[in-house]
Amino acid sequence: MDKKHGSKLRKIVQICWGVLTNAYLKGFTAGGSTIYTGPLKHFCVPGMNCYSCPGALGACPIGALQAVLNSRHRKFPFYVLGFLMTIGLFLGRFVCGWLCLFGLIQELLYMIPTPKLKMPERLDKVLRYLKYVMLIVMVVGLPLLYRNDYGSSKPFFCEFVCPVGTLEGGIPLVLMNDQLRPALGGLFIFKMSVLAVCILASIFIYRPFCKYLCPLGAFYALFQKVSLVKLDVDKSACVSCGACARKCAMNVDPSKTPNSTECIRCGECIKSCPKNALRFTCAGKKVGTT
After folding, report:
1. For residues 18 and 16, what is the distance between their CA atoms, to the nearest angstrom?
2. Low-confidence ranges of the chain (pLDDT < 70)
3. Which residue in 202, 150, 169 sits closest to 62, CA to CA?
4. pTM surpassing 0.85?
């Protein structure tokens, strides 16, 4: 990776991917009365991207997974799990660092010049497990096990928690479609509160949703150590100066655990290394230049 242009390139990729996957302009120009439901919506995008966003061209994998699990027929989500496992085995959490629009939004909020907070190490370690709780309980467990009188369930994470859906889908639809406003109630207020907490926290803490709540990041983290794309350390070049650990905003020490489940493959550690000891590899072969 080119050290000089690495950070800028990542931001460009994040922005371009966000625009590309939300390019249904009619959804924004039709007054919020329609969302895209064409053939592309049958396919998932790799990152969190609300199905109900007026501009969304693809389906969110977390939403799609819940939609299958909460159906009356209890079908096995072959496509969604196959898609997620393929992305995870190839990229790991690279998706989080390069292809997630909500991740970009959090990063931009963090750039607001304010004093930054550092979570106490013990509390930080405990909170990191919350995203796995969200995955197991809210995304899989409750939609699969809870059934109403009609034999169906709810997309619990999407309906009760997901700030991505509130920001990308809920708010634009409510602003553009005044017919929806009379139906707003306590649930919308609660989800707006969750979003507000995430936005406020993002100003002071780097990517708090990614660190503590995102079930998609939790799923991809399961494949981090076996994915084809990895972060590699040249032990012969590394001088254990700690520069990479100090640079990592996800609180990872790349020189010791280069493929930590918390690493989002942003590449900032590569940029900071004075000895060029860090690099991305794909199937064991170096990617990019240093």
Report:
1. 5
2. 1-6, 31-33, 288-290
3. 169
4. yes
